[in-house]
Write a structure and sequence with these properties.
Elements (H helix, E strand, L loop, with lengths): L1 E14 L2 E14 L3 E5 L6 H8 L7 E6 L2 E2 L5 H11 E4 L11 H12 L3 H14 L15 H13 L5 E5 L7 H18 L3 E5 L2 H4 L4 E6 L2 E7 L1
Parallel strand pairs: 3-8, 3-9, 6-7, 7-8
Antiparallel strand pairs: 1-2, 1-4, 4-5, 9-10
Helix pairs in contact: 3-4, 3-5, 4-5, 5-6
The structure holds adenosine-5'-diphosphate and magnesium ion (MG).
The site of magnesium ion (MG) has 4 residues, from helix 1.
């Protein structure tokens, strides 16, 4: 069953008079439970594609459907609600809230979703245990290593059982050992909790762990293989 269907997506950025074609007609279907890497060199369109699938940015043409909901049929509020309830995001730069502890960062999304306090605290602690951060509940981001911060970000992204998690170069700011451990942890969550992950990378080590590898170059998918 397709959880993401992107059809013939194009996107051009204008910087003054200069136009940059970031995506030139991308088709991508992702099934529930996939662990898929979008690979390609810097500037190939990975971030643009993930932002469009996540409803953070709109394509110039083409259509996107996540969890059977077509973005073009939704208004701003509908799209915001879909993002909040159905899509988890992990960014290259961790993007945790610095003044909140690990457990509060994970709880924050559930707070926005209206999950009662006791329930969200319990779920946040459980998921932090799952990602290997037992005992770090009360640490703030600055007190955690990069790898630990990214684990909090993954915990935050998956805690509410989203339809998909989008991770834009989640290991780019980590050393290779820490990056590998993070990807293995994501893979474990994929297997155990059936979380669908779509992550971008230009690290060949990270690509090796993907179940499917989609290669993008100059805004076009040039290879798509199940591994
Ligand atoms: P990647 O994530 O693979 O490095 P991006 O999706 O960030 O690629 O970028 C694809 C192309 O679009 C690049 O040529 C980049 O310079 C350009 N681009 C991305 N974002 C913008 C923007 N906000 N304004 C202008 N050009 C952009
Ligand atoms: Mg990028």
């Amino acid at each position: 069953m397709a959880i993401v269907t992107a059809k013939d997506i194009t996107k051009t950025y204008s910087q003054g008079k200069v136009k940059v074609k970031a995506l030139c007609g991308v088709d991508l279907m992702v099934d529930k439970g996939e662990f898929i890497a979008i690979a390609g060199p810097s500037g190939s369109g990975k971030t643009t594609l993930l932002n469009i699938i996540g409803g953070l940015d709109l394509p110039d043409s083409g259509s996107v459907m996540v969890d059977n909901k077509k973005f073009s049929d939704m208004n701003q509020a509908g799209l915001a609600s879909l993002r909040l309830h159905k899509i988890g995001f992990v960014f290259q730069a961790f993007n945790l809230i610095p003044v909140l502890s690990a457990v509060e960062n994970v709880e924050y999304v559930m707070l926005l979703q209206g999950v009662p306090k006791i329930e969200r605290h319990k779920r946040a602690k459980t998921i932090l245990n799952d990602v290997g951060l037992k005992g770090k509940y009360n640490s703030r981001p600055a007190e955690l290593s990069g790898g630990q911060q990214q684990r909090v970000a993954v915990a935050r992204a998956i805690v509410s059982g989203p339809a998909i998690v989008l991770a834009d170069e989640p290991t780019a700011n980590l050393d290779s050992k820490t990056g590998k451990d993070l990807v293995l942890m994501m893979k474990k969550m994929n297997k155990e909790k059936m979380v669908t992950f779509i992550f971008s990378t230009h690290d060949s080590m990270v690509m090796d762990y993907a179940g499917r590898l989609v290669t993008i170059r100059d805004g076009l998918i040039v290879n798509d293989e199940i591994k």
